[in-house]
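Hi F.,

I've been meaning to write this up properly since the lab meeting, where we talked about keeping a consistent format for the predictions we share between groups. The idea is simple: the sequence comes first, exactly as it goes in, then the structure tokens exactly as they come out, then a line or two of notes. No screenshots and no reformatting. I'm using this chain as the first example so we have something concrete to point to.
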Amino acid sequence: MRLRRVRRSASAAVAAVALLCVMASCGTSSTPSQTSPATTAAPASTAAPTTTAAPTAAACEDVAALKSSLEALAKVRPAQDGVDALKTAIDNVKTNLDAAEASASEVLKPEVQQVKTAFAELQTAASGLTADNRREKLPSIAAAMKQVGTATAALSSKLTQTCPGS
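Output, unedited:
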């Protein structure tokens, strides 16, 4: 009986640490976004228009929805909330990821792609997850969540830079 409690506590601790890492990486940054003074010199290339157009309002909304669903995913605690809560959060991220990928401008695509790659690893880690096997799958899910957290932080930073009010 004591071994069961130790296992349960260890599993909960690992999940909490993984989720805290993800949540911490989603917070706001206190570092300034501009590291050098603005220059008033003419642009280096004026011959052709730039290909990195600013994102549309719809793209910003889709990426903001993705960020929000990723943050909600980070708050899920499978041991307390249950496997179904985790699966629902994963489904929500998938829906928002598809929309963000479809609407993202060239400026946002690299970060959205980074999230997509990390999220695919999470989906693989969580594949076949049940209440009975969650302890066995927890280490791979925690590792994948850490990668999703890193990708979410990059997305959040880019979203703040490129989408006013996000």
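Notes:
The CA atoms of residues 3 and 9 lie 10 Å apart.
The chain has six helices and no strands.

If this format works for you, I'll send the rest the same way.

G.
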